[in-house]
């Protein structure tokens, strides 16, 4: 019996007649909105906002904004130079730092371990 690839990957709901014939692990709760939902044993946690991640966000945002402003002003050489500088130096530097994030996070705990999200949450709740 040939089975549609989407059916094998669980992307579509199999007809009821095929449920007994095909060894597909079928969970009706995944497809039926009226099925009772079971509480999840895993609660979702926001990832840490470390210094490294703040650095990546800040560099990417500043690069994008400065390139957009310079391009809108009609300049072409400076945005291209920024592309090369950020593309080579910035990305290589961030890649090099990213290697330390996984291999030895204790080397720079203020950059890789400390969660700065609480600083932003306190400021946003105070305003």
TrEMBL record:
Segments crossing the lipid bilayer: 50-70, 82-100
Sorted UniProt keywords: Membrane, Transmembrane, Transmembrane helix
Annotated spans, Disordered: 1-20
UniProt superkingdom: Eukaryota
Protein name stated in the entry: Uncharacterized protein
The organism of origin for this protein: Rickenella mellea
